[in-house]
Amino acid sequence: MKGINLLIIFFLLSGNWLYGQNHEYEIRFANRVIGNVSAHCKQNGTAKNISIQSKVDMRPLTRFSLDISCEFDNSVMVRSKVIKDSGKEGDSKSITIQKDGKIYTIVQNGEKSILNNPEIAHSVSELYFMEPHQITRIFSESIGTFLSLKTLGNGLYELTLPEGKKNIYKYEKGVLMQVEVSQTFGKAYIIRVS
């Protein structure tokens, strides 16, 4: 028994903790479920890996899947990849972001660009796992740019997209419960189910 206790204490003191979160959401439009989001975050020491898979089926208007993977080390994003697939041949879109020393290389649908930023400390994917207290600027892996984030109070945060649309993130006790997503055809809601 003493040996097991020592092993547990050694593991806890070594800093090699493995911590994970899994959240499931429904995507609703006009009181109808049109898709789902599965969000997963694993933390091991200073490394954090986030993966988010979304599927939307709102035929005949739209149908797509979105896969996001994002890696952090020492609270800095080092790599991300986003793939959006409509299911149609040749219609897949991707964006890959890689930290390269003091710059980030962005490859979007085969086109390369450089982001001269010392570090990306927070990304939109992280909003599924943490309430963004005192964060006013956040990086979007999906579009490869920084976005404005405004605190509205009472666990509400407003994310402004480049075209001016605003998404509202709602937290309860630090947990993301709902995202109100502005779309051309109305508002969709991403609602936590587990």
Number of helices: 1
Q: Which consecutive residue ranges, at least 5 long each, have pLDDT under 50?
A: 1-18
Percent helix: under 10%
Number of spatially distinct domains: 1
Rounded Rg = 18 Å
Question: Rough shape?
Answer: globular
Pfam families: DUF6134 (PF19630)
InterPro entries: DUF6134
Short structural summary:
The protein has one helix at residues 2-13, and strands at 18-29, 32-44, 47-58, 62-73, 76-85, 93-100, 103-108, 111-115, 137-140, 145-153, 156-160, 166-172, 175-183, 186-192. The protein is mainly β and 194 residues long.
Task: Characterise the protein shown here.
- The chain is mainly β and 194 residues long.
- It has one domain (17-192).
- 6% of the residues lie in helices and 61% in strands.
- A 14-stranded antiparallel β-sheet has the order 8-7-6-5-4-3-2-1-14-13-12-11-10-9, with no helix packed on it.
- A hairpin with a 2-residue loop joins strand 1 (18-29) and strand 2.
- The longest helix has 12 residues, at 2-13.
What distinguishing features does this structure have?
194 residues; mainly beta; 14 strands; globular; DUF6134
